[in-house]
């Protein structure tokens, strides 16, 4: 059932792994509400999901395969470089901190956003820019090349960190939501289907936006 759903809804991004860091940092600094952490760890991908349809960042999907390793992230310096990406997260952090009247939010936002880049370097092929300017060094350890291993490592990381930081019903709900979303994403790690159900880069970006928003709303309600 879940694997069937994945044929239409693969996210082709690191997903639940980022949210594990949100739970961990929330445990360390509970003065900041959980939804801020959930949005902040997703921030680079949320920004990316807007910049792709805007034509500012560029990604190309493979029509003949759903696999993550065949997605080509040609250009995403604003959302996914360590330096420039964190300049935007610093600005977003200042805005959210002002709205919530809590200066700790600035630190939280940048830490969460930086954690996104660090986790992405584990799975991405050599496409993550460091500074975000032309001629930049690009890095990535490429765990996505081994889809089965990447699938297991990401969910194991999520379950371990969640179990370490949550307990009772919040933990149970976190494990259920994480398991469902990771299961839906299985096709992009394991390649069950011969064709790619996502037909364009804009659809790919839209699915990412939908996925991160849905997880953030569910976790804000159920895990908090
Ligand atoms: Zn990302």
Describe the protein's architecture and organization:
A two-stranded antiparallel ribbon has the order 1-2. It has a two-stranded antiparallel sheet with strand order 3-4. The chain has helices at 2-9, 16-28, 34-51, 77-80, 82-100, 104-123, 147-165, 168-184, 186-190, 201-222; strands at 58-60, 72-75, 128-129, 138-139. Mean pLDDT is 91; it is low at 1-7. It has 224 residues and is mainly alpha-helical. The protein has 10 helices and 4 strands. The structure holds zinc ion.
Write down the secondary-structure element order.
HHHEEHHHEEHHHH
Question: Count of DSSP E strands?
Answer: 4
Helicity level: 55-70%
Based on secondary structure, the structural category is mainly alpha
Count of helices? Answer: 10
How would you describe this structure in keywords?
two-stranded antiparallel ribbon; mainly alpha; 10 helices; binds zinc ion; globular; 224 residues; single chain
Give a short overview.
Helix content is 65%, strand content 5%.
Topology of helices and strands:
Blueprint: H1 2-9, H2 16-28, H3 34-51, E1 58-60, E2 72-75, H4 77-80, H5 82-100, H6 104-123, E3 128-129, E4 138-139, H7 147-165, H8 168-184, H9 186-190, H10 201-222
Antiparallel strand pairs: 1-2, 3-4
The structure holds zinc ion.
Zinc ion (ZN) binds at residues 13, 44-45, 80, 116, 120.
């Amino acid at each position: 059932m879940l694997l069937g759903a994945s044929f239409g809804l693969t996210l082709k991004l690191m997903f639940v792994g980022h949210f594990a860091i949100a739970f961990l940092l929330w445990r360390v600094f509970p003065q900041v509400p959980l939804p801020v952490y959930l949005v902040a760890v997703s921030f680079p991908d949320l920004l990316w999901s807007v910049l792709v349809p805007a034509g500012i960042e560029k990604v190309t999907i493979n029509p003949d395969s759903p696999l993550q390793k065949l997605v080509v992230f040609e250009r995403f310096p604003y959302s996914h470089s360590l330096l420039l990406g964190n300049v935007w997260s610093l600005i977003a952090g200042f805005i959210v901190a002002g709205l919530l009247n809590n200066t700790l939010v600035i630190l939280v936002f940048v830490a969460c956003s930086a954690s996104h880049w660090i986790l992405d370097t584990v799975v991405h092929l050599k496409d993550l820019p460091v500074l975000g300017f032309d001629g930049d060094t690009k890095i990535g350890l490429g765990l996505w090349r081994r889809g089965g291993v990447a699938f297991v490592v990401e969910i194991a990381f999520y379950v371990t960190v969640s179990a370490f930081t949550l307990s009772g019903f919040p933990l149970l709900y976190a494990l259920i939501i994480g398991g469902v979303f990771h299961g839906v994403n299985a096709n992009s790690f394991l390649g069950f289907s011969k064709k790619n159900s996502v037909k364009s880069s804009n659809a790919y970006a839209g699915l990412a936006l939908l996925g991160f928003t849905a997880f953030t709303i569910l976790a804000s309600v159920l895990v908090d």
